[in-house]
Design brief:
Helices cover 41% and strands 15% of the residues. It is of the alpha/beta class.
C-alpha cells in the first residue's frame, strides 16, 4: 500500500462481541475477551503500517444501562488488558490517551487507566485513544461549558477554538471511521470530528476482524477521492 494514501487518524466502532458469543453458544464475556484480543492485534497492526492516531470506542455513556455484572466484567477486562499490554505500548512507543470522563469509572480501572497514561506520556510513534465513558453529544456540551467557564466571548468562538476544548484537542479529525458487525450508524461517536470522515462498514463481527480486514478498509480508503466540498480541482462542487 502507498503509505502516502494512508489515513493519519483511524477511529473504530468495535461492534459485535455479544452476537459473536451468542452464535457460538457462549456467554457475552467470552465475546468481550475475544474482542480484547482483536483490539490488541489491530493496535499492533496500525502501529506497524504507520497510523499516527487510532481511536477505539471502548465504553459509551449509554453502556451503563447494561447489566451490572457485564459492566463489572468489562472494566476488569480493561484493567487486565492495560496492565498486561503497557510494556508493549512502551516498546512500540504508543501513547495512551482517554476521550471521555473517567472519573465515573470504577476506582480500580480508573487508577490503572491513569497509571498507563502516565507511563506512556512520552511515547511519540502513535496515539491510542480509548473512548471511555464517552458520548459525542456530551463532548460537544463539555467543550461549550469549558469555553464559557474560560470567559471566551462569542466573537472568539470559531471552529478552531472550539476544537481546542474537545477531548481530541491537538489531534487531527479521523480520516476514516470503521464500524464492524453490519450496523450503519455512528452511535453518538465523534460527532463534531466526523464531519468529513470517510465511513467504512463491514458485516464482520469485531472478534473476527483481523489485520487482513483492517488492510481492506485501508485499501478502500486509499481508493476514495476526498474533496471536502470542492470538485477536487480547486472549484466548489455543485
Amino acid at each position: 500500500m502507498d503509505t502516502a494514501r494512508l489515513p493519519e487518524h483511524v477511529a473504530i466502532i468495535m461492534d459485535g462481541n455479544g452476537r459473536w458469543a451468542k452464535q457460538r453458544g457462549l456467554q457475552r464475556s467470552a465475546g468481550h475477551k475475544a474482542g480484547a484480543n482483536t483490539a490488541h492485534d489491530i493496535v499492533t497492526e496500525a502501529r506497524s503500517v504507520g497510523i499516527r492516531y487510532l481511536t477505539l470506542y471502548t465504553f459509551s455513556k449509554e453502556n451503563w444501562a447494561r447489566p451490572q455484572e457485564e459492566i463489572g466484567f468489562l472494566f476488569d477486562l480493561l484493567g487486565d488488558y492495560l496492565t498486561k499490554n503497557t510494556p508493549s505500548l512502551l516498546e512500540q512507543s504508543i501513547r495512551l490517551n482517554i476521550l471521555g470522563d473517567i472519573e465515573e469509572l470504577p476506582f480500580g480501572a480508573r487508577q490503572i487507566v491513569k497509571r498507563t497514561c502516565q507511563k506512556t506520556r512520552d511515547c511519540r510513534a502513535m496515539v491510542l485513544n480509548l473512548a471511555l465513558n464517552y458520548s459525542g453529544r456530551e463532548e460537544i456540551l463539555h467543550a461549550t461549558r469549558s469555553m464559557m467557564a474560560a470567559g471566551i466571548p462569542a466573537s472568539k468562538v470559531t471552529e478552531s477554538s472550539f476544537k481546542d476544548h474537545l477531548y481530541t484537542a491537538g489531534q487531527p479529525d479521523p480520516d476514516l471511521i470503521i464500524r464492524t458487525s453490519g450496523e450503519l450508524r455512528l452511535s453518538n461517536y465523534l460527532l463534531f470530528q466526523s464531519a468529513y470522515s470517510e465511513l467504512y462498514f463491514t458485516d464482520i463481527l469485531w472478534p473476527d476482524f483481523s489485520p487482513e480486514h483492517f488492510h481492506r478498509a485501508l485499501e478502500d480508503f486509499a481508493r476514495r477521492s476526498r474533496r471536502f466540498g470542492t470538485t477536487g480541482e480547486g472549484e466548489p462542487s455543485t
